[in-house]
Amino acid sequence: MSKTSKKTAAAARRTKIEEARRAERARERRSRILTVTISTVILAGLVGWGAYAINDANEKDARQAAAAKKPVSGEKSWDAGKLGRNHVEAAVTYPMNPPVGGDHHQAWMTCEGTVYTKAVPDVNAVHSLEHGAVWVTYNDKAVDADVEKLAGKVSKTPYTLMSPNPDQSGPIMLSAWGHQLSVDTAADPRIDQFITKYVQGAQTPEPGAACSGGLTA
Asked: E strands along the chain, which residues?
């Protein structure tokens, strides 16, 4: 091969190598642009979702605050300052049924959305109310469908408990420390209002106290 031919072949190789390098650099630039674009989209989505979550939480807090200030129509209230809070071992006679406060036993009923199928001792349930729980009770006037609906609601709501109370006056009653509501059906919208207002509400003598670790039967 002549010198001229060798030079021409070498130049062709250099040209191909340079073209390959330019193509590789172009691919790298495209890859970087694509990566930055995808990252930007993901970041924007995360920021947007975070803002939505914060707004949703703020709206929920606002609704709960509004519900807490609004009185529940038809509820009865007692002076919390006159309800005893001593731990006693003897039986306690309460002036209302179910009781909404007063002296009680040291052990509380577990109230982590706990549904009891048998009546629970008043002296232990009252202790749960002291911790900020809402106690849902019913008698044989409540229809089975209402009992089932209430059980589903309670089981999803921390700081609540539910049990039968055959001697109470109303078919369905909700009790918190110093407050009580009687309704006829589980469809009554005041049930949600009462629970929202009084689960760990302002009336709670011991806010933040545990609902776990208590009696379960």
From this structure: 76-77, 112-115, 134-138, 160-164, 172-176, 179-183
Kindly report, residue by residue over 123-164, the tens digit of the pLDDT.
Answer: 999 999 999 999 999 999 999 999 999 999 999 999 999 999
- Same domain, yes or no, for 83 and 184? yes
Res. 6 pLDDT band, cuts 50 70 90: low
178 falls in which pLDDT band (50, 70, 90)? Answer: very high
Q: How many CA atoms lie within 13 A of 113 on its CB side?
A: 8
Q: How far apart are CA 63 and CA 89, in angstroms?
A: 41
Instruction: With CA atoms as reference, report the closest residue to 170 among 86, 95, 74, 50.
Output: 74
Whether residues 158 and 83 share a domain: the answer is yes
DSSP output for 81-97: GGS---B-SS----SSS
